[in-house]
């Protein structure tokens, strides 16, 4: 197999993986919205920071937090600004403090009365001691703590999303019968299909984004040509062809793992392969013919002599020798450059 064929197959496979990754991302986003995963992850972060279920309920019941929810949705907010969190949290916590004494004493009294969690009380006392009597500084410190907690919650959400995309990619791969080994074999055997899809993938690589590349007509053409189940698939008859079934299973698993890497990864890979493919084709010489290495003039190939009449190599070389001899007779003395100053 030539290097250009390998590059074209890799380009086509990257294009297929890009299309499958976009489908997986769209399905994952749909599930995240239906299940309110972002709002649930945010609530987990708030709960981890406040450490008290009653206090968490009071926090989400605060008017500032309620204004961030969609009316009638029954779901919590998907995003809370750090300043809003600090104001609402301090207001919800302050209602649990008894009257009288310094703020640290009131926090300790609320802890003893079990109005707030011991960990929450310890964190609040640390914030109070650091801020002194500066309420704004205390709010800023509480906002920074919220931001740090939300960073960890974002990591939780990314891990859950990656696991969900892995499962979605496996289902999409099975439904589409996206077997990497079978696709590569089909592209290797069908040079016309390989060249057409590689050219389409190269054109799609110039799109401004992965979504635009996946929405191109070339993606639909690649799916029609390379994906789908047939009655002849070995995966439907594992007992009749165990080796073929094992190869099909390996190809499907490989595709599922590749699709779970995400559309940005495959769009970047597709762009790199397209640039490499474009760099491999060199432009033709401007004169349209190869230079004559034996002389200074460009010699025409034999088929261009005499108005297109084909000459064999011996006759062509003989004519070149005759022309060189005529030039030597016409100008027998060699031209020697005269040094300057003479």
Number of helices: 15
Distance between the termini: 65 Å
How many structural domains? 2
What is the overall shape? elongated
Please, what is the average pLDDT? 76
Report the portion of residues in β strands: under 5%
Structural class by secondary-structure content: mainly alpha
Please provide the count of β strands. 0
- Low-pLDDT regions: 281-301, 303-308, 333-342
Characterize the structure shown.
This protein is an all-alpha fold and 342 residues long. It folds into 2 domains: 3-32 and 177-280, no CATH class; 38-155, no CATH class. 68% of the residues lie in helices and 0% in strands. It has 15 helices and no strands. The protein has helices spanning 3-35, 37-50, 53-60, 63-66, 82-94, 103-112, 118-131, 135-176, 180-189, 191-204, 210-214, 217-226, 242-259, 263-280, 313-330. Helix 6 runs antiparallel to helix 7 (118-131). The longest helix has 42 residues, at 135-176. The radius of gyration is 37 Å and the shape is elongated. The protein starts with a helix and ends in a 12-residue tail after the last helix. The model is unreliable at 281-301, 303-308 and 333-342 (pLDDT under 50).
